[in-house]
Write a structure and sequence with these properties.
- It is built from 13 helices and two strands.
- With 272 residues, it is mostly helical.
- Strands 1-2 form a two-stranded antiparallel ribbon.
- It is globular.
Length: 272
């Protein structure tokens, strides 16, 4: 019963009209991320680097598919992912409140099961969606660019890559899933408190940006170490094969699930 209810909420989020839009916009934002600087000091994007690698203008490990993929999470995609991954949840919440479907589900399933499904479903959907987008982005880069491991690259540590292609792929899938869950936490929490659609679309971005800025300021002032700051940045571990990063992301994901459950449980108690 529990798994079925969670699966239903997850399916609703994934099949929301907003999900295909997010699946298109996220790769575009990833490919717009900066990949480096040319001889004149001008920044060039991942898309430009992939184009130059395909036409032979740029060569070397720095324009391999794996190295360029790591740069996908350094631009606007990183900040807008929390909005795009939970846009479907925002639409479902506002529609459910308007039609009364949320109250019917609450009565049918019970408050605890209702809260657990409403918390876990969107988080899992966000993890699945980001994993699919990450895999799609890497496959596109693999078509346009040479593979780091296929070309005999051995100095993966210099570029922040794992020692093997298998390690890279495992990290891509696992860390993308965990990062997707974490990116979905602000939107899932906001959906338990607010009903306004525009508020639900803006808050995930504002919360994510504020948290990142506070942590960065604390690191710059020495209140926390930069190692801890990097450890808590789930997107920074995607494709890098860092076990400690995956463990930290998993712990934060569980904390986010608990916080989301408590928020939705409080919403159920209010009888909204």
């Amino acid at each position: 019963m529990v798994i079925r209810c969670i699966a239903v909420e997850m399916k609703k989020s994934l099949l929301s009209p907003a999900s295909p839009i997010s699946a298109v916009l996220l790769p575009i934002l990833f490919f717009m991320s900066p990949a480096g600087y040319d001889g004149t000091g001008r920044a060039f994007s991942v898309a430009e680097a992939a184009r130059d690698a395909f036409t032979g203008v740029r060569q070397g490990a720095e324009v391999s598919a794996e190295v360029l993929f790591l740069n996908c999470f350094s631009g606007w995609g990183l900040l807008l992912a929390p909005v795009l991954l939970t846009a479907g949840t925002a639409l479902l919440v506002t529609e459910g409140q308007r039609t009364g479907a949320s109250m019917f589900t609450k009565v049918r399933e019970g408050r605890t099961l209702y809260a657990l499904a409403r918390a876990a479903g969107p988080l899992l959907a966000g993890g699945i969606l980001l994993t699919a987008v990450s895999l799609l982005s890497f496959l596109v880069l693999s078509v346009l660019c040479p593979g780091f491991y296929a070309a005999g690259g051995t100095d993966g540590a210099f570029f922040g890559l794992p020692a093997s292609r298998a390690g890279f792929l495992v990290s891509l899938l696992l860390d993308s899933f965990l990062a997707g869950i974490l990116f979905s936490v602000p939107g899932t929490l906001a959906a338990a408190v607010f009903q306004d659609r525009y508020m639900l679309l803006c808050l995930p971005f504002l919360i994510t940006y504020a948290v990142r800025q506070v942590l960065l300021r604390l690191a710059m002032e020495g209140a926390v170490t930069f190692e801890l700051y990097d450890l808590m940045d789930a997107a920074a571990h995607i494709g890098r094969g860092r076990p400690e990063g995956a463990a930290a992301a998993a712990a934060l994901a569980l904390a986010g699930l608990l916080a989301s459950f408590l928020a939705w449980r409080a919403e159920a108690e209010r009888g909204r």
